[in-house]
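User: I'm curious whether this sequence folds into something compact or stays loose and floppy. Could you predict its structure so I can see for myself?
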Amino acid sequence: MPSTMPAHASIREQAQDPDYPMRALTSIVQIAGATDPATLIARLVDATAAMGASASLYTAALTDGDGELSCFNLFAGQPAYIHAQNELGSLIAHPWFRIARKHLPSGSDRRVRIEVAADADAMRLAREYGFRSCFIVPTPSGHELDRLGMLCVGSEHPDDFEGPEASVIRTLARSLAAELHDWLLHYLRQRLVQTAQLEQTDMELLALEYRGLQSKEIANLTRMSKAAVDSRFQRINMRLRCSSRKASAMRAAAYGLLEPT
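Assistant: Here's the prediction. I'll summarize afterward.
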């Protein structure tokens, strides 16, 4: 349930309040306790307001095994922004996301370079909807995993994330990005396990496939027959909607199924 944020003083001005850091951090801590996506968005709205930001956007992109790209967006701000941005194109084509892919350290939108006309349109639209200045926090995941998240915290004031005066908001933004990343990954992992009806044995087989083992090697390790291994992978592929066991393993890895819980 996105919410419109009221006009207010700059974040750097608000950060002068002695209670500001604790008030914002208290809201960020609540993210982890969200029980469903609607509650998560409501808490993102609260955290955004507590940080003094005018809007915030978290986008996560995961590549499924067959190359299909899934994108998940969480937004706090004027609802019309997301509709208008979708008219321009996917957020994964946004210059913010390009920055997140190329530069793992967080930083302001001063690093954005206009490369095509669509970039200028996207940045102009963002400025109209509470992102006159922006702090971008990439949340990459693991070596060789094609999974990337990005938090953008916006302000209606220019240069609100620059200089030592903005150090607190930059730290808070990184904390918020980490909480959103952890929550969304856990949610997507659990949803995929449930919808695909995967068992623990399935995930063990996918982990072995992800390591590059062949059916005979997997059979020796699991004490299954080679035919049983191949048959099990056929079922897994069908449930994960992937064309091959390699693709299934890649999708499982991207969704965090192969990581310790």
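Summary: Strands lie at 55-63, 69-76, 107-108, 133-140, 147-155. The longest strand covers residues 55-63.
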